[in-house]
Amino acid sequence: MGSKLLDERTVVAYLNKRGVIQTEAEVEILTGGVSNVVLGIKSATQDLVLKQALPQLKVAAVWKADQRRAIVEANGMKLLHSITPDSVPDLIDVDPDEFTLTMSRLPRECTVWKSDLLEGVIKPSVGKDLGRILATWHNFGADSKESLDAYMEDSLFDQLRVTPFYRAVAKVNSALDSRIQELVTEITTAKITLVHGDFSPKNIMITEEAKPIVLDFEVMHTGNPVFDLGFISAHLLCKYLRIEDLDQRALLRQTAISFINSYTQSCNIVVAKSLPHHVSVIALARVEGVSPVNYLDDLAKARVQSVTKAAIADPNITFEGLFA
Fold first, then answer.
1. Which is more confidently placed, 5 or 263?
2. What phi and psi values does residue 39 have, to the nearest 5 degrees?
3. 135 and 93: one domain?
4. Considering the entire predicted model, what is its pTM?
């Protein structure tokens, strides 16, 4: 088990020792969300990013997670890069002892999709492209017994998604508990295809040509594709309910619908009728769960709570109806 976390003072010597770089290099501390040390390393010939999994996530509540997720991510990145090379970074190195992975750095001109959306830069074509990319992965996974077997172990999915999102919401909403438990059963027992597990705007970079590149595969597992659909759509719903500007709301709605329509047209797996409920539970978890989003004011939080709780209780709610 690795025990020492790397930093800007130690990472160059570490990568030299592993043979990843052979010279001195400049180091930059990058924002890595709540779950990783993330460092940029630039030498004369290489531009890299190193990630090292933290044993405890940086959130207000205690949230421990197995550092083996770095190995899952490395394997997932390598596999999905082989399927969609233009949409996934290139893996350079993985160290299972220190829970690190090193990848090629994307062009500096790339922007984070989450930031774009919050700043009002909303392009529905990105949703359409993401629907096609995700459908390509899900189609591959459903047809690859070797890959399904390789990712069948899903304890990380429980630690990082099921418990802090679904069970956390159920715990504080007794009236919704029964329906949420049904949704938990659906995403933990239906082993249909490879699931990214963190298909979120914060993990999607946008090129100058407005093409998406997907990051962060540490929750990849064999499971139910409805989770990936619900996870990204929940983020779009939170941003939709946050915005007052009617034009931006319309573009966000168009982005969400373009995403789900593109996925439906490209994927061989039928979209579960339960999708709107999964979207709603995950969106509600971003207010009442272990890892709340940081961009909702009190009014927007109340709006998310009202819309999602009503939707979870409504057996006839549609995907489009969430973005009404």
1. 263
2. -130, 135
3. no
4. 0.90
